[in-house]
Amino acid sequence: MERDLTHIALFAALVAILGLVPQITLAGGVPITAQSLGIMLCGTVLGAKRGALAVLLFLALVAAGLPLLSGGRGGIGVFAGPSVGYLVGFPVAAFVAGWIMERTTLPAGLAAGAASVIGGIAVLYLFGIPGMAIVLDKTLPEAAMLGMAFLPGDILKAVLAGFVTQGIARMRPGSLLSRA
Amino acid sequence: MLTLTSPVETPLHRLPAGAKLAALAVFTLVLFRLSSPLPLAGAAALVAALHLPWGRTFALHALRMLRPLWPFVAVVALWHLWTRDLHGGAVILLRMVAAVAAANLVTMTTRLSDMLAVFETLARPLSPILPPRRLALAFALVIRFIPTLSDRMALLAQASRARSPRRPGWRLAVPATLAALDGADQAAEALRARGGSD
């Protein structure tokens, strides 16, 4: 019980500090941050349920007024802005990534990479793009065009999530709760 | 760690957090019912008026919190100039800016502890599966461990720079995750030694 609670809390903190890492700017001026890497890791390392709870805990603290979203954003205002779909999708993305991780028998790194692409990108965009379409009152294809700017960075992060999970599987096999 | 609550004390700080959140919910619902620029401009002016009496520092803080919106405002404005649909563009932009600014105003005038207390009250119906004490402990653990993990990241980055001229960047992701896992195991042991989480 305690172990579940502390893992959920520490991974919420991990998502927060990965958002504080200075963002790098890809060609074309699209900023990418490590925050969505943290979301993917919540799922691939902690598993579906704990991963989703860690992300929900993180979002609750953001809503309560801590500037923990990348770029120092936070407060209730971010849930009224154009990124609201991505925020709603975060816990679902972690859940789906964790669910896939728990159910495949592929090697940890490969499974985590695939789980991150499906959960952390496909599922996340399924929420993020309609969210943008609603707030900005655009059609889905128009919102998708805006959202696709983040795709190269997100693919990079999914690959990285695969490597990190593989590293954890090698160094702390007992801590890879998604496979425990 | 700094919160987004404004250090400038306003009379709004003294209103109960639950009431402010309820008012915000109603205001946001009304915003999404309005569909012509004039009433929306009125709503936006109302939000602006609630910012102004508290001085320059407060108003500038509020403007800074709106900064992440400007790229979206620019894209929508250009789009609607190009399609010559100024009416539609004004509705979208006024609604979005007013909704976000109103929510930011609640955040700026409510202390973190008050807001968390509201969340804990709202979560009370879930108490059979989520005991309120465990939720409060989870909030406290995250708030405590953000600076700890952040210091750990800074140390890892320094150590990496001492060994190599390359920037550490993504190489820190594995040790950072390990730090979170080890911290979780240690905190769990410490909690158990002190009688558990409930």
Concise summary:
The complex is a heterodimer of chains A (180) and B (198). Chain A has 180 residues and is mostly helical.
Q: List how many beta strands of chain B DSSP finds.
A: 0
Shape descriptor of chain A: globular
Helix content of chain A: 55-70%
**Largest interface, and how many residues on either side?**
A-B, 57 and 69 residues
Counting helices, strands and paired strands, the structural category of chain B is mainly alpha
Give the N-to-C terminal Cα separation of chain B. Answer: 27 Å
Radius of gyration of chain A: 15 Å
CATH architectural group of chain A:
Orthogonal Bundle
The dominant shape of chain B is extended
Q: Please identify the structural class of chain A as seen in this structure.
A: mainly alpha
Report the CATH C-level class of chain A: Mainly Alpha
Task: For the structure shown, list the relevant keywords.
heterodimer; A: about 180 residues; mainly alpha; Arp2/3 complex 21 kDa subunit ARPC3; two-stranded antiparallel sheet; 7 helices; 2 strands; about 70% helix; globular; B: about 200 residues; 2 domains; extended
Structure description:
The complex is a heterodimer of chains A (180) and B (198). Helix content of chain A is 69%, strand content 2%. By secondary structure, chain A is mainly α. Chain A has one domain: Arp2/3 complex 21 kDa subunit ARPC3 (Orthogonal Bundle), CATH 1.10.1760. A two-stranded antiparallel sheet of chain A has the order 1-2. The mean pLDDT of chain A is 91. By secondary structure, chain B is mostly helical. Chain B has two domains: 101 residues, no CATH class; 70 residues, no CATH class. The radius of gyration of chain B is 22 Å and the shape is extended. The model of chain B has no long low-confidence stretch (mean pLDDT 91). The interface between A and B is large, with 57 and 69 residues.
